[in-house]
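Exercise 7. Given the encoded structure of a 465-residue chain, write a plausible sequence.
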């Protein structure tokens, strides 16, 4: 593919997702809860996603016995914590723009026209909130939380399963006037294109009836039914918010991931998909080496990059993916850089040594808060600790909660992740969650330094700088 020539870098960066609609994000774990008889906190969820063939979620019901639903933090306090964090991110972004952006742009050979766009975006860009954790539909007052946050000027995403939209008509009706800007659902566990086609075309009542036949403990099997039901329900009710289907790429679906986007686009025009390789490094785990898996994954990465390049050539093309060219170039860089060490390449694609939120400033700008990861008995309410949902052993601040922190204190916590990680006995091995690596600044500052040269060569070959 040829090099892009443009006099409008801003359009190109936003088109390809290298700049995102927000310059920072907050991902609160809404369902951090107390655990009966234990000083550590648990996750409240109504699903049981425990499938060793795909993934085992730490929030699964059977791993959280004794969780106390009544202990969730009150909505008003949660909302204050979110807004404190939004303000803290704005401050941290400003400090990064004023003190560190120039150094980053020199190291990553970013042209001066692009530097100006990045600077302005960091200073003036929006901050979004991704309501997340367990199943957020379970909290009391979800609609009023969304309304409150939108009134306070933030973009609101809701990452959820959709179960309650399907099961609880009163809840669904209550949400009609309070929908988030984007709802993110999950379809990683659709077993085939044929099943996906059926889920998109069955009468809604039949979809519901089939869902009911699934064993309660099979969370992964339930979720595609709930997700597609919810997307269809939104379309039927004329709700215009964007729908994003998260799609973890694993051995069972990797050969038809992109075809899924085509099937979905036929039936659900408002849907885009967000595929990414399954991640396990944050749990200090890795899959046994599988040369065939790696080869197929690299082919898929190349196909996705090609789709981005076609989008650049023709911005009106029917592009059904969450655009993230920089992310896919980082994955491709790992395949090239470690071509002679394929085990290392495979591990990198599952996060190990790929990208770190905490090593360099600029990377960890999609900020999470939730469980403390330790003894939480001194806090009245659970959750609220700046850190990471996936790995609480590296950057999590188990001494403070965001609703009791000032924006200045939160910005200092964001800017001092590296120092906190140095206290960790076993720092996180890294990850490649696209929401967390979200824009080019975050992806590039956080990527393993061993990848930078290869990545920059790819970026230059594909988009000209
Ligand atoms: S619904 Fe989500 S949070 Fe709940 S168990 Fe399944 S994957 Fe985990
Ligand atoms: S690299 Fe950071 S964001 Fe990613 S899993 Fe580890 S601690 Fe969490």
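Solution.
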């Amino acid at each position: 593919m040829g090099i892009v020539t443009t006099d409008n870098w801003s359009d190109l960066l936003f088109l390809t997702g290298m700049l995102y609609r927000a310059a920072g994000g907050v991902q609160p774990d809404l369902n951090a809860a107390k655990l009966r008889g234990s000083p550590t906190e648990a996750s409240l969820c109504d699903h049981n996603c425990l499938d060793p063939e795909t993934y085992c979620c730490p929030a699964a019901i059977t791993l959280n016995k004794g969780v106390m639903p009544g202990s969730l933090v009150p909505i008003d306090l949660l909302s204050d914590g979110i807004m404190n964090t939004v303000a803290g991110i704005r401050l941290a972004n400003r400090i990064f723009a004023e003190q560190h952006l120039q150094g980053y742009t020199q190291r990553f050979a970013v042209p001066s026209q692009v530097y100006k766009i990045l600077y302005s975006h960091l200073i003036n860009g929006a901050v979004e909130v991704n309501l997340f954790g367990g199943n957020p539909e379970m909290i009391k007052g979800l609609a009023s939380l969304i309304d409150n946050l939108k009134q306070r000027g933030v973009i609101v995403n809701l990452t959820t399963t959709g179960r309650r939209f399907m099961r609880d008509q009163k809840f669904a009706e209550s949400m009609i006037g309070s929908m988030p800007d984007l709802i993110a659902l999950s379809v990683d566990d659709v077993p085939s294109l044929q099943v996906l086609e059926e889920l998109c075309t069955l009468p809604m009542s039949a979809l519901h009836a089939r869902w009911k036949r699934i064993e309660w403990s099979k969370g992964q099997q339930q979720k595609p039914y709930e997700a597609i039901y919810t997307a269809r329900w939104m379309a039927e009710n004329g709700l215009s918010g964007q729908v994003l289907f998260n799609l973890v790429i694993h051995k069972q679906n990797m050969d038809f991931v992109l075809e899924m986007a085509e099937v979905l686009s036929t039936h659900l025009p408002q849907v885009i998909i967000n595929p990414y390789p399954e991640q396990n490094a944050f749990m200090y785990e890795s899959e046994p080496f599988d040369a065939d898996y790696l080869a197929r994954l690299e082919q898929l990465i190349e196909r996705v990059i090609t789709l981005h390049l076609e989008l650049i050539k023709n911005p009106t093309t029917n592009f059904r993916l969450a655009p993230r060219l920089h992310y896919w170039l980082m994955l491709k860089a790992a395949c090239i850089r470690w071509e002679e060490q394929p085990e290392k390449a495979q591990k990198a694609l599952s996060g190990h040594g790929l990208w770190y939120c905490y090593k360099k400033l600029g990377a960890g700008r999609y900020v999470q808060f939730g469980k403390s990861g330790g003894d939480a008995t001194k806090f009245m309410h659970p959750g609220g600790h700046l850190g990471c949902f996936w790995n609480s052993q590296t950057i999590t601040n188990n001494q403070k909660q965001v609703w009791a922190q000032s924006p200045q204190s939160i910005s200092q916590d964001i800017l001092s992740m590296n120092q906190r990680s140095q206290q960790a006995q076993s720092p996180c091995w890294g990850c490649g969650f696209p929401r967390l690596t979200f824009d080019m600044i975050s992806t590039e500052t956080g990527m393993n330094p061993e990848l930078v040269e290869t990545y920059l060569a790819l970026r230059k070959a594909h988009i000209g700088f």
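Remark. The chain is about 45% helix and 15% strand. Students should compare their own answers with the one above.
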